[in-house]
């Protein structure tokens, strides 16, 4: 059986990793195969000339090496193993994800991945007691407002920063406010209800008057008023989705808050009940959500296909399966923490976030190296091979259909028995030839300009993770990350002979990892610009490509706004810019707009029909979570589902699409 994985980012590579671990004979390891190993072949196709997708670590040469002397007093020309001459040194910049959260059930597969790839020595853990964990800011009313770390700091922070003034009153009024504006209030923010022209209405999901989902802004305004929604909440959403709170779905982005609202009719009462353990198992539901909620299986939707071979309620089936897998993952991880690197896991348990000494691309390179150990007749990795068409030839759910994958470098398509797409939904929609799945193309993606700065000497005004900017502030900047505070181990001069991407095969940075501390110390700051405001504030992203003047403008604009936000360099303190980098990440963050979960359920119905059943499944950030932890979790769940109950199992009793947990 030939399995083709589309996309060589974190989702695609981790999917291939789990497939290989489940189906193939691991070189030098025990047989963990489903059926002998030789009957399976895995091919990973990546369009770009490197692996990693949006995970992209860059080593950028110093533009101004003069402020530096090498720690320890070594002179230029001395042994490169002991020091890096500033004249040939580079600075580490992240243009994509940079830190990972170690806690929560969603993070368990990622923690296990670190273990299976033996990345213990590559990980740097940021403690919960660190300034980066304790100090997070929002830029509001021309100053950095420090956010509370808990109820006590919210209560006793004096004077409260402008962003928090009046918050206590809104919190205590919430149970009464939400009764005044309940979930099904007619006419409340009507413009933010699900669009009646949405494709969802074509697939049996009511649109007009359907309050089973709402925007984050509408939800927060009902509970806490517009000031909290416009400032505090919108800033936090900028940091996660770079999106507009007026359009994003609360059901798909803040599900736990939506569940508290459904169960208790109040977020404050729900949080108190959860904290005290007195909440019971209330199942209070709003009228609309009980009729068209996440576990419903309406007759209109049933017209799109079968129930995936599941007898009974498919929502309950996938809920129980998710609980079963989560329990298994946790047990595996607990066994690992008891038997391997126990001090490491003890530090991880006390961590706020973690990063990699040589950047996030370390994880990508480790996945590529691991997959490269398998014989090429079992695992084939191919980057620089764009897929321009996918044709699903129908053989029925139990028939002999196949998938033809057409790449731009050959006239002969790759014949696959099953295709797993880790591409963004819109890209998959584009290449599905004459067999499109229109709901793949509904959610927009946003563009981001990432501008990295490195200074010789301290530039940041405070210690902390960084700051975010709310929607109420008119600026193209969504926030800034103080990289030297959250990942200080990366503040080195790196000898990588000219910079570039660390995860490019055969690049010198894969083998040359010498580094040295600097004097004065580095201070790295990343400014994030654009998001859903890109075209409004900065123009069309395409105008900046291969345009040095345009990129220079973005660099200057970012530096100017950063200076306004954090203020000038304090008197008597030097901070000289020594390196910078500008990169535009096109269509990099999916936007889960209102109705997202309902559309996923309808898409699942389409994929469960005869044409696509057992032939196509999907994973990645477009569907059930955009974080790196979520992408790895979805990849592992998909592989386990396919191997144990789906297309790769012997019985093939259940149609697995990769988005089946949208029913939960």
UniProtKB/TrEMBL annotation:
Region ranges (Disordered): 66-88, 279-306, 496-516
Residue ranges of domain Amine oxidase in the record: 10-490
Compositional bias ranges of the Polar residues kind: 506-516
Recorded coiled-coil stretches: none
A Pfam entry, by short name: Amino_oxidase
One Gene Ontology cellular component: mitochondrial inner membrane
Gene3D superfamilies linked to this entry: FAD/NAD(P)-binding domain
Any one GO molecular function term: oxygen-dependent protoporphyrinogen oxidase activity
Compositional bias per record (Low complexity), positions renumbered to this chain: 78-88
UniProt-listed PANTHER family: PROTOPORPHYRINOGEN OXIDASE
Name of the protein in its database record: Amine oxidase domain-containing protein
Organism this protein belongs to: Dimargaris cristalligena
């Amino acid at each position: 059986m030939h399995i083709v994985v589309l996309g060589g980012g974190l989702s695609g590579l981790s999917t291939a990793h789990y497939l290989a671990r489940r189906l193939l004979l691991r070189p030098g390891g025990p047989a963990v195969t489903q059926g002998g190993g030789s009957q399976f072949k895995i091919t990973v196709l990546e369009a770009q000339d490197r692996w990693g997708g949006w995970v992209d670590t860059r080593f950028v040469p110093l533009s101004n090496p003069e402020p530096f002397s090498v720690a320890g007093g070594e002179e230029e020309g001395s042994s490169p193993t002991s020091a890096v001459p500033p004249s040939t040194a580079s600075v580490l910049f992240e243009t994509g994800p940079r830190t990972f959260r170690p806690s929560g059930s969603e993070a368990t597969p990622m923690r296990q991945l670190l273990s299976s790839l033996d990345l213990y020595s590559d990980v740097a853990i940021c403690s919960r007691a660190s300034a980066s964990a304790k100090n997070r800011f929002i830029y509001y009313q021309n100053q950095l407002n420090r956010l509370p770390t808990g109820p006590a700091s919210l209560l006793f922070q004096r004077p409260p920063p402008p962003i928090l003034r009046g918050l206590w009153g809104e919190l205590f009024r919430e149970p009464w406010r939400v009764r005044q504006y309940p979930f099904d209030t007619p006419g409340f923010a009507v413009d933010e209800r699900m669009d009646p022209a949405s494709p969802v209405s074509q697939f049996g999901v009511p649109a007009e008057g359907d309050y089973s989902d709402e925007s984050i802004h509408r939800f927060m305004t009902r509970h806490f008023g517009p000031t909290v929604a416009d400032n505090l909440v919108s800033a936090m959403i900028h940091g996660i989705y770079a999106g507009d709170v007026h359009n994003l779905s609360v059901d798909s982005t803040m599900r736990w808050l939506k569940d508290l609202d459904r169960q208790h009719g109040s977020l404050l009462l729900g949080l108190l009940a959860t904290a005290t353990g007195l909440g019971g198992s209330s199942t209070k539901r709003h009228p609309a959500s009980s009729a068209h909620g996440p576990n419903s299986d309406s007759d209109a939707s049933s017209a799109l296909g079968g129930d995936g071979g599941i007898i009974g309620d498919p929502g309950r089936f996938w809920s129980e399966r998710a609980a079963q897998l989560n329990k298994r993952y946790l047990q595996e991880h607990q066994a690992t923490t008891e038997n391997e690197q126990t001090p490491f896991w003890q530090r991880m348990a006390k961590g706020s976030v973690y990063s990699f000494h040589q950047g996030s691309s370390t994880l990508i390179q480790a996945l590529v190296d691991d997959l490269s150990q398998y014989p090429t007749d079992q695992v084939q990795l191919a980057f620089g091979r764009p897929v321009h068409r996918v044709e699903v030839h129908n053989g029925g759910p139990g028939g002999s259909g196949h998938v033809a994958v057409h790449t731009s470098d050959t006239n002969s398509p790759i014949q696959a028995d099953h295709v797993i797409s880790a591409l963004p939904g819109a890209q998959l929609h584009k290449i599905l030839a004459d067999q499109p799945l229109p709901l793949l193309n509904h959610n927009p993606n946003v563009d981001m300009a990432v501008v990295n700065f490195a200074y010789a000497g301290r530039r940041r005004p405070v210690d902390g993770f960084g700051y975010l900017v709310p929607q109420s502030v008119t600026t193209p900047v969504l926030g800034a990350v103080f990289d030297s505070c959250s990942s200080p181990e990366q503040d080195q001069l790196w000898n990588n002979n000219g910079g570039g991407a660390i995860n490019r095969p055969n690049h010198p940075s894969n083998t040359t990892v010498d580094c040295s501390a600097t004097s004065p110390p580095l201070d790295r700051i990343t400014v994030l610009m654009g998001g859903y405001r890109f075209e409004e504030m900065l123009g069309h992203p395409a105008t900046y490509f291969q345009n040095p003047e345009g990129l220079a403008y973005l660099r200057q604009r970012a530096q100017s706004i950063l200076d306004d936000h954090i203020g000038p360099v304090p008197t008597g303190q030097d901070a000289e810019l020594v390196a910078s980098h500008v990169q535009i990440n096109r269509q990099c963050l999916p936007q889960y707009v209102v109705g997202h979960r309902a559309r996923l359920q309808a898409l699942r119905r389409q994929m469960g029909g005869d044409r696509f059943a057992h032939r196509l499944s999907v994973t990645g950030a477009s569907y059930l979570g955009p974080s790196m932890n979520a992408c790895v979790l979805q990849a592992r769940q998909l592989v386990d589902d396919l191997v144990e109950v789906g297309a790769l199992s012997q019985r093939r009793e259940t149609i697995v699409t990769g988005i089946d947990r949208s029913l939960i």
